[in-house]
Hints:
The chain is 38% helix and 16% strand. With 341 residues, the protein is an alpha/beta fold.
Amino acid sequence: xxxxxxxxxxxxxxxxxxxxxxxxxxxxxxxxxxxxxxxxxxxxxxxxxxxxxxxxxxxxxxxxxxxxxxxxxxxxxxxxxxxxxxxxxxxxxxxxxxxxxxxxxxxxxxxxxxxxxxxxxxxxxxxxxxxxxxxxxxxxxxxxxxxxxxxxxxxxxxxxxxxxxxxxxxxxxxxxxxxxxxxxxxxxxxxxxxxxxxxxxxxxxxxxxxxxxxxxxxxxxxxxxxxxxxxxxxxxxxxxxxxxxxxxxxxxxxxxxxxxxxxxxxxxxxxxxxxxxxxxxxxxxxxxxxxxxxxxxxxxxxxxxxxxxxxxxxxxxxxxxxxxxxxxxxxxxxxxxxxxx
Length: 341
């Protein structure tokens, strides 16, 4: 099958990582994969399998030429898999201007759906998706109830990650947290929690600058914990590093469906996470103490004592049974067959 994935850029982000994961998954399963991207800037290009055919549209230089080039590049595709709303709008406009077959799957990663349910212009008419994938139940409910799509054409598929070999043979020490420095990620709570338990915390992020970073530094100074908190930048594939650590955190206030939770599962590292995203629903069924309903540190400490007793084989079993690459390959192929039927 000839599969074309489309996204605006490959900077650090959940949608971008899913796009890269899908390109690699399909090409490693003998499909012909093309990635059309609007901008060559981005840290995730290095994670693409070398067999993926990458096309840069350079939309900033000329949008009209980008529309034309897109339709030319997408003509031989069996499936055009489009990530994110602004990209979907571009693809639909390109086909309106230059024609061409439209075997389109719209993959929606919109993270503010809980508070912004507005339906973009033309989504109920000329831009109405034929097949829609949402990474959360909130998104698929929106597609059915607000866009008025047929339920049989709407699919909820969790985000997934490939399982990487670890980079470390050392004994695990300290805690780890992954997430760009934004208030919604709630690094402040993670720092306070680590200080309360007396553990070192390594925070992987894209960059260390801005008001929020300065605020975190002041908090660390107030707690007299400067030697115990480590900000780590420049690592764009954190999963192989996770086994360096004995425990992981994700205390976000809000998330769509965070990939990092699945990366914790893939590496078998014990963790505590806040109640965000779709993957936590599966985790709750098996180990409810891993998913936190509040930000009371005493409750987190109590559940931490339970979490660290889990074996890595027990945690990896959740990845194998619910999030493995083979399972997701089957899910996406069933969606594609819906488009082609």
